[in-house]
Design goal:
Largest sheet of chain A: 2 strands, antiparallel
Number of helices of chain A: 11
Distance between the termini of chain B: 51 Å
Number of domains of chain A: 1
Oligomer: heterodimer
Mean pLDDT of chain A: 85
Helix content of chain A: 55-70%
Strand content of chain B: 15-25%
Radius of gyration of chain A: 24 Å
Helix content of chain B: 25-40%
Radius of gyration of chain B: 26 Å
Strand order of the largest sheet of chain B: 6-7-8-3-9-10
Amino acid sequence: MIRDITIGQYYPADSIVHKLDPRVKLFTTLIYIIALFSFKGILSFAIIGVFLFAAVKLSKVPFKFIVKGLKAIVMILLITAVFNLFLTPGDVILWQFKSLKITDVGLTNAVVMMSRLILLIIGTSLMTLTTTPNQLTDGLETALKPLNKIHVPVHAIAMMMSIALRFIPILIEETDKIMKAQMARGADFEHGNLIQRAKNMVPLLVPLFVSAFRRADDLAMAMEARCYNGGDGRTKMKPLRYGKADYITYGAAIVFLVLVVVARINFPWPQ
Amino acid sequence: MGIIKAKGLVHEFIRRDEDNNVESITTALDHVNLDVKEGQFIAILGHNGSGKSTLAKHINALLAPSEGTIWVDDMDVSKEENVIPVRKRAGMVFQNPDNQIIASVVEEDVAFGPENIGVPTEEILERVDFSLKSVGMTKFRQHSPNKLSGGQKQRVAIAGVVAMEPKCIVFDEPTAMLDPNGRKEVIKTAHKLNREKGVTILLITHYMEEVVDADYVYVMEKGHIVMDGTPRDIFSRVDELKAHRLDVPQITLLADNLRKAGLEIPAGILTREELVDAIMKISVRADMKSIAKSALKRMENRKEAVGEEKVVFSPVTKKDPASSILMDHVNYCYSEGTAYQIQALKDINLEIDKGQFIGIIGHTGSGKSTLIQHLNGLIKATEGNIYFNGEDIYDKDYDMRKLRGKVGLVFQYPEYQLFETTVFEDVCFGPKNQGLERKDVELRAFEALKNVRFPEELFDQPPFDLSGGQKRRVAIAGVLAMKPEVLILDEPTAGLDPAGRDEILDLIADMHRELGITVILVSHSMEDVAKYVDRIIVMNQGSVMYDDVPKEVFRHYKELEQVGLAAPQVTYLMYELAEKGLSVDLTAATVAEATRGILAAL
């Protein structure tokens, strides 16, 4: 199950999309989400579909791989669809059983919500699939730099994110080790009711926290020893620089949004 | 004036309670004077808690002195405005390879330092190239540090420091958490930097064999520098070193033994070649021969009198199928059926009889840790069967938790699993899980703590405040309290200083004798194991390579070397002497055996 979730995974490939500046990808994804929640009618839907399809083709990520990521949210999709389908009031009742009824509005709502969610997941996972977590934090840091002026510690947040990314696998390994060590002392993590199980987690969580704090302490010292002094006056080995493709993508994203909005205003059918 | 100079350096750790009143003062450094010339390779030795790491942190301005002054490149470290310039000049490599790598990609981590000090982009790229090259890690540039071995991670950390172009690098126990191969990699890299780039190196360690090639050695104890001199100088003072809880390389110890027996061997022998030459030189002299004879006789007499020498354990090798572990064609695959499939164990057939003291040896990744986790059912074999006391542990109605009580497993760095508020409660955890009455639980815990010789007045202390060695005892007691029939210990000496290592190994040997339990000791150090066990199983690439008594295993010292394991130093020495025509006892594996062997051969 966990392995099926492709959101947040990176798919290495050599494509134009992979090489784009992370800021561009963040911006385009944002535009894409705005478009997704403002479209109305079959024409704007088609525009979004074509845009997404083109992006996926350009990224060289196999379509199958992306669709696999949808498996994880099948339940959410179904629940949304069912609620929209049966619980939306409308003028024309197509089918009724006691208080449950399917109306025309409900039917369109269900279809629209389903397609929105599916497109949302595919679009956003395309971004994470083509951008390494490090590029992503880098992009966020640069893009959000103006917030520094209103005292948002952008650099510190980005640094925290990248350190978290580095230590997640280490802590998972450590959890596994401590779990085995406590199992060797007869601990039981699998049986019992919820409260008992929660209580049984204490021998796992205490050592884990102790070790996490020790690591944090060590790391802070190692960073200081390498002259880390916050974000001021830092340079970058690979500073983000816009290329031609990046400007073109910016343009394409804006044209795309305009098209969707125009289509929505002039051709909003069906509702 | 030297690059690092300390005068009357004092550092006190002051512990305060909640009301900010001083609770206790620990003096970690007590009037230390130091003068290091540029381009030198300096080693600082000392056992855990001797103050050597505190000293190192002063050189990098991570700690400020309570009294006295320390200058790095003529800058007073305690001045606020000097902190960053000092850190640029004096880099530092720490002990834990994982906790000092910041980025998720090797090259980005190396760039971290230069980025911090504002080096322009093009120059950062150049520096990263050249630093990775100087530690031999260019190939791994784009890799994630999580996929590297301990030695490789340390080399990345070194590259990260080199990229800041420091004049001096302080290594704070860089090898304490590594296996022998990793240790060699790191020490070699340090020497290379010193030789080729002229970087001043300060190596802090408790492994004596790492300081043999240093220019100058300081020995620290209780915050003082108690000895200093060239390695030869220091190593000729064997008894003094022992008094400071340090151990001496086997070869130096052997040379010292022979000299004390009256032979004319020069003091401060460091390498095998030197000792072979010295022995061959005196082997032709008649007067030395008679000295050797009488020394040997004296030794035999003394042995009878005090019964020194290691106690030779007589293994209870009863072929009783009802009291042993039997592994029958065991195979194990990680992530079976995926692209990452790794065959960790290949067709393992072993019989472990009750009461044996076994050493399992292999380097990292040889499958030894996987093997022992099979024995208490934490890992289930993908193929094959395991029988404990004649019962198949993979039977549907076999009680795994009971098995884990009978086959106790102490993991590597077991102190990390302590979690209770007091030592005593923590040891109670195992027996409590076995479902015993409170009274029995406490009795078991009490006995176990007594068995590991844990001082009674510390029973109610929180385990987190204890020293490393004490914590490890508590963790071992935690497993012992379940009254196992078999006790397995995975690298029980990792990270301890030499004296701590010997104490734990002696303790294990005593427990084996007194409690009559089967003990399986996993290690990558042949020298540690040779002294204690009566059977060695050598693991290589998931298979059993050798399984025999130590002497027989060491006979294959050449093959062992090929798979990255080394026989004890004295074994090599004996073979080299034999090659030169001296008919010595080739099976000697400990210093005592070798001393007798050489005296008898002369």
